[in-house]
Amino acid sequence: MKLAKKTLNERSSHLYDVIIVGGGVGGLSAAVYLQRYRLSCLIVEKGRGRSFWMQDLRNYLGLPPDTPGRELLQQGQDYALSLGADYLRGYVEEVQDEGETFAVKVKVGKQDSLYPVFRSKYLIAASGIIDNLPQLEEMQNVYEYAGYNLHVCMICDGYEMSDKLCGLFVGSEAAINTAFVLNWFTPYITVFTHGKVEVGAEMRQKLRDYGYPLVETPIRRFLGHKHEMSGVELVDGSTVKLETGLVAMGSHYYNEYLKAIDLQWKGGNLVTDSMCRTSHPRIFAVGDLKEGVNQVSIAVADGTLAATAIWKEIRRASAPRRWEQNLIGAVS
Amino acid sequence: MKLAKKTLNERSSHLYDVIIVGGGVGGLSAAVYLQRYRLSCLIVEKGRGRSFWMQDLRNYLGLPPDTPGRELLQQGQDYALSLGADYLRGYVEEVQDEGETFAVKVKVGKQDSLYPVFRSKYLIAASGIIDNLPQLEEMQNVYEYAGYNLHVCMICDGYEMSDKLCGLFVGSEAAINTAFVLNWFTPYITVFTHGKVEVGAEMRQKLRDYGYPLVETPIRRFLGHKHEMSGVELVDGSTVKLETGLVAMGSHYYNEYLKAIDLQWKGGNLVTDSMCRTSHPRIFAVGDLKEGVNQVSIAVADGTLAATAIWKEIRRASAPRRWEQNLIGAVS
Known about the structure:
eight-stranded mixed β-sheet; disordered C terminus; 332 residues; 7 helices; homodimer; 20 strands; alpha/beta; 27% strand
């Protein structure tokens, strides 16, 4: 059921098999599998994750390539609920390992917040990442194009950028190297630092060698209309014409709630085994939060793997079910 | 384009980046990614693979749980074609490793067959498995229920069998152990050997302990109507009432075409690394043919991984694309 402020108490004494932090595609896939394995789970979703912003999900088999990410999320949420999963809109503040169980403290509601604590045997960290975007005075101007033709994922949308005039928006000198992968799709690349990046002599020379202009003047706003970005206006009033763009400014990892637990990390990513198990035997990580390729298809498969591994363990620890009957009666 | 007997010559001199053996969900996902990575691929599909038989695909996020497998296959095929993939209905007879390339010999057409040879830099083995079914005199009687409520995959459909009278159809004594996992979903299990399995004293005792009847009389036919199996009639005329069934008779692996190549196997499965690469650096395996969990979501993710690894390698071996222009002209 969908939990809300008024119904929180109904589950406060329930021990879930699994609490899933994050209701993106990885978490939802795990929930569908867990419920179908006849286990109980609670999904805690803060809202507006990475796939929520995708306007066209172009490489997930089975869905038309113009399917918005939020449609997939809605389908998964509805299906998980129909299978008996619990779903709560809230922000996981802290996870405590109590030995046999986890205590998961959730902040519910932005005003007059409540802080219920839920318990589970296993935890799936599916809270993902969110891409950093250029910080302009008018952020609405950025949101107007981000996820449309201002992309954040080259694997997802490189094809859409093919041979187009492309702006590459970077937040560090290292990120400029993205240009030398992006040129597989288009060589018409202009690099924008928004005035925030120190670029060394070697990188400047490399960009010159490749013919990729470097624009260091800060950006005033994106130009365009109806979600179709057509260029950039700089603070000095000059403009750069573009047909598409790629933001490569790093990501924010939603992993703060795990900081009290000793886990193996690689940067912001959790290190996992082939079944998505972290270095903690009862914590799994799926999707963008774990090491690997950040794609919807991978997150969905991760959910399958984590749920399957958890089921296997809970099943093996449970008493076997016998058929209490007179054997002879079975064949009639 | 869709290749057929008449159009085979159009591609006979083309060197594909990748030939994908098998147009199931893993192969199609790989094709979509490869084409979107601006690589060229040919899918060779023999027809009627495992997911073709699935009547309801209940745990693949994004699709309604009553989606037939063949709908997903059709969508993937249409989309891959629209992205420029080639698709051929045929049976891969042999793959030869020529050093830099593979020569893939395909049998096209059941009558007046042609045997064209196609070449590629990489190979993706996506030919999967097919589940063995009980061999009855009237196989049509088996097909009437297989994939409906006579299931072949416990992970997929265990939930549908919950607490139902369930027939477990085995092809070996080892497969009887499936009962002791299946009992997570239902304890009302009757085991059928179809008269083909020698069952030892220890297993007989275990079945008795659990209360699971063992039926060794051969099966005459499945009972039921409109794809709803309701029991089994044995050759002695007696009947056993059932509400669902699980076939656990092993699988046939479509891997004969690889036998000339030295690869690392585990049973019928190819051993792969985390990107689905086999022990041969230019052969990848995806889906049920590789070791792992046999699920649609996994095969789709495998396609993503294999395509991404191949793209990375081809990209790195290619000349970089520069923007040939006067730099100053870029900022207008």
